Amino acid sequence: MKILIYSAKDFEIPYLKAANTMGLETVFTRDRLTTNTAMKSLGYDAISIFSADDASTNVLEKLHDFGIRYIALRSTGYDNVNLKTAAKFKIKVANAPGYSPHAIAEHAIALLLSLNRKIVRAREQMKQQDFTLTNLVGFDLHRKKVGVLGTGAIGSVVVKLLHGFGCEIFANDLKPNLDLHNKYGVTYLSKQEIQGICDVLVICLPLTSETHHLIDTTVIDGMKDKALVVNIARGAIVETTAVIDALKTGKLGGYASDVYDKESGIYFYDRRGEKLNDPNLKQLMDNPNVVLTPHQAFATEEALAKIAETTFYNLDTWSKGETPDHQL
Questions:
Q1: What are the residue ranges spanned by the domains of the chain?
Q2: pLDDT tens string 84-124
Q3: Per-residue pLDDT tens for 27-77?
Q4: How many CA atoms does the CB half-sphere of 125 hold within 13 Å?
Q5: Where residue 126 falls among pLDDT bands split at 50, 70, 90?
Q6: Which of 28, 112, 214, 257 would be 8's cystine partner, CB 3.0–4.6 Å?
Q7: Which positions are annotated as active-site residues?
Q8: Which pLDDT value is given to residue 112?
Q9: Which of 19-23, 76-80, 171-175 has the lowest mean pLDDT?
Q10: This prediction's pTM
Q11: pLDDT given at position 65
Q12: How many Cβ atoms sit within 10 Å of the Cβ of residue 152?
């Protein structure tokens, strides 16, 4: 099996090489998979892609024509792959689930603390030799009401960490986790009930047609005044313009996110010296009540090793004519 790995980053290549213990023929390219770069896959049997790669209908049609039979995702989410089209062209797809829910959950807490305790603003002030505290007042997380949307693998760890801070935790999920209720006192409520009572809202949901722009103007208007929103799921779950407007009016107290709905082609790349042609992203970056990170929550040594291991497990299993556990 000959494999082309799209969107290969310097920081992940050593882990991928180490995980290829079976000696599969592998080539790395920094290029994202797009309709323009799909032709690079000619002559390969399989490709590996990341969350910023485009495996939509048009791209999959080209991949099929170029002979690609397998796609191994280096991510848990697969909203960037049209699975129906992949099935139509008999292209098998597998993801890398559960690589490290702790990495993502811990980053969510880091974002929350940075936002609430004004860590980024404090650093910028100190660089200017401004040591005043007027703009640096936050609040105790202890006894605050925190809502967690989605209590799967990541959301469950978020709950455990929040419990350690002494938060009163509310959650919403299609399948309530009774263990979280029994051990950590989590109360499951409707989204509407949660948004009206919580000081903090943490988004841990997958991106689906139902969750696309779930956090919109209507939801934000129904939230507690000055509440904080933390998004470590997918950018498109949040309607960016609604968040920007709510920050301007003061309805939202702050927004922290590791993801952005238009991050493809921007995040993971060095854009220093370039003009950023995205006014919404610029407004978020310039807002003192916003903390953004460039989709780095997964970037821990443990998570990268597990992603690489799972990726090559999927590829090796296919090369043997078998079906990997993670095939979608």
A1: 2-99+301-319, 101-292
A2: 999 999 999 999 998 889 999 999 999 999 999 999 999 99
A3: 999 999 999 999 999 999 999 999 889 999 999 999 999 999 999 999 988
A4: 13
A5: very high
A6: 28
A7: 234, 263, 295
A8: 98
A9: 76-80
A10: 0.91
A11: 96
A12: 18
The overall average pLDDT reported for the chain is 96
The average pLDDT across 151-168 equals 97
CA distance 67 to 44: 7
Domain 101-292: assigned CATH number: 3.40.50.720
Contacts of 44 (CB under 8 A, 6+ apart): 2, 3, 4, 27, 66, 67, 68
Please indicate whether the domains covering 2-99+301-319 and 101-292 agree at the CATH topology level: yes
